[in-house]
Specification:
Elements: E1 3-11, E2 22-31, E3 34-43, H1 52-58, H2 71-82, E4 86-89, H3 92-105, E5 116-118, H4 119-126, H5 134-140, H6 153-167, E6 172-181, E7 184-190, H7 204-215
Parallel strand pairs: 1-4, 4-5
Antiparallel strand pairs: 1-2, 2-3, 6-7
């Protein structure tokens, strides 16, 4: 069993070295690359203003964060949730940089870079030269984006979890010889859960369909001595 954590942050800007702060952090637990349902989520008061250009991205103003905890108040709980697992994020260096700065302020160690898995880098390797934002990948993999009217760390984590499964081959195609019509074989996606080998036993009908298929092939290699 392999545990990893997929996470996302929303911030007041683009550069923690210029005083930008985290205002939202969300993390999802994955076991064998698939979500378990366990998650961490917190809205955080940044102790500074939120520029209009940042508010347009995530839709949050300083008034929305009134009374929310400071990062130092949730830092230990977040660090415990991350534990020593591999950490997955889209454009991960950005999120790592912000968490490093916030953890440092709270007196906690920075995140080791060998724990980083960057889904943006994975997507660029698989789809070179193509748009590889989270929105673009969701559209490419036919993942429902209707709830994403603005950036939201928890929703983005849930969407990225689906994207990550697609990028790493976590869904398997199931082919049925019996399900044929004038349009040819029907192909469906099977959500098979954690990636553990499964013994597949064909039915009598499937064996008969396979034999009939081979009978139409001249000297099929499967039947050669």
């Amino acid at each position: 069993m392999i545990r990893s954590v997929l996470f996302d942050t929303e911030t007041t800007g683009l550069d923690p070295l210029n005083g930008d702060r985290v205002i939202e952090v969300a993390a999802l637990e994955l076991i064998n690359d698939l979500p378990t349902g366990r998650h961490f989520h917190a809205l955080i008061h940044p102790q500074r203003d939120i520029p209009p250009e940042a508010a347009r991205v995530h839709g949050m103003s300083l008034n929305d964060l009134a009374g929310k905890p400071l990062f130092a108040e949730v830092a230990r709980e977040l660090a415990d949730f991350l534990a020593d697992s591999k950490l997955i994020a889209h454009n991960a260096p950005f999120d790592f940089g912000f968490l490093d700065m916030e953890f440092g302020r709270a007196g906690l160690p920075r995140l080791a870079r060998e724990r980083m898995i960057d889904t943006l880098a994975l997507a660029k390797t698989r789809f070179p030269g193509m748009p590889n934002s989270l929105d673009a990948l969701c559209r490419r993999f036919a993942i429902d984006l209707s709830a994403r009217t603005s950036h939201n760390a928890l929703l983005d984590c849930k969407l990225l979890a689906e994207v990550y499964v697609e990028l790493t081959g976590g869904r398997q195609r199931g082919l049925s010889l019996a399900a044929q019509d004038s349009r040819g074989p029907v192909t469906v996606y099977l959500h098979t859960g954690p990636r553990t080998p499964q013994s597949m036993q064909p039915t009598k009908a499937e064996l008969a369909a396979h034999a009939a298929f081979l009978a139409r092939i001249k000297e099929p290699v499967w039947l050669l001595p």
